[in-house]
Amino acid sequence: MRATLPAHLYGSSDAWARERAGVFGRAWLFLGHEAEVPGTGDWIATDVAGHRLMAVRGKDGTLRAFHNVCRHRAGPLVTGDSGRCEGELVCAYHGWRYALDGRLRAATGFGAADGFDPREFGLLGLRLEIWRGLVFATMDAAARPLADHVAPLEALLAERGLGIPAPALRRSHDLACDWKTYAENYLEGYHIDAVHPQLADELGGAAYRVRVEGDLVVQEAVGVNDGPQAGVWGWLWPNLGINVYRDGAMIERMTPVGPGRTRLDYLFLNDGGEGALGESLVASDRLTAEDAAICEAVQRNLSAGAYDRGVLSPHHEVGVAWFQSRIAEVHP
Fold this sequence. Notes:
The protein has 332 residues and is an alpha+beta fold. It is built from seven helices and 19 strands.
């Protein structure tokens, strides 16, 4: 049996700092769907582990990613999750103006006589790649191509003839637990009988299988009652669930927002729009509430001081063991 990670890594400021740089600073991070930024000046933005990121559609039609940080005194370029700017990005603090390709166009109060060269103060760019309409960015210039990262998931979807529908609805939920606490809960079906009685009924006695392929953890079950949650769940390192159901899909980003705090960002996808989500949306809300309650309870116990390490089941917690081994790499 494998021992778990020590409890002090869940919610401490030191662990947060290490994972912010060593995990999220090196990974491909999901920003949104390209259909959310169809026209010139359309943008999407998010923060992941304190990294404030955005992508904007340029006049040439190219989607580019940047840090949402002005080069003057770190003001924000955009506020919110999505929007549209009229031909340029303008810092909300002192009004510095940037072209949609990141070049600095105007810095009020600065000029050549001051020894100021605007070419040295363009926005801080990120690598951006798109897979099946999903937009990812990374801060790591040496990261392998996104296609390599998602290859196991691409093979799974292609094998089963599954696609990624159009975005229909976004929702977010704030949790009082460490992002790892929630991710580990997602990566095993061991807790389903105790925590999700309705889901357990839908799945009946069906086998629940978990396997790891590259950067992907695949979970599969076929519900004997053909319930809305029967299907395939794929979890992509470091924090992205891609859930494919019979009537649509959902992207679930487990977003760390601070030590011991997590935000779940959901993007529901369905070609029929929000109105077609039906019982899948109801089931998602129920499962989220059940998972939130148990994860927050676990977090309180991790922080209480009595528990340090536990053990992982070699039969039910293969995905958790793999995840913890990856996390351990940034905590020498």
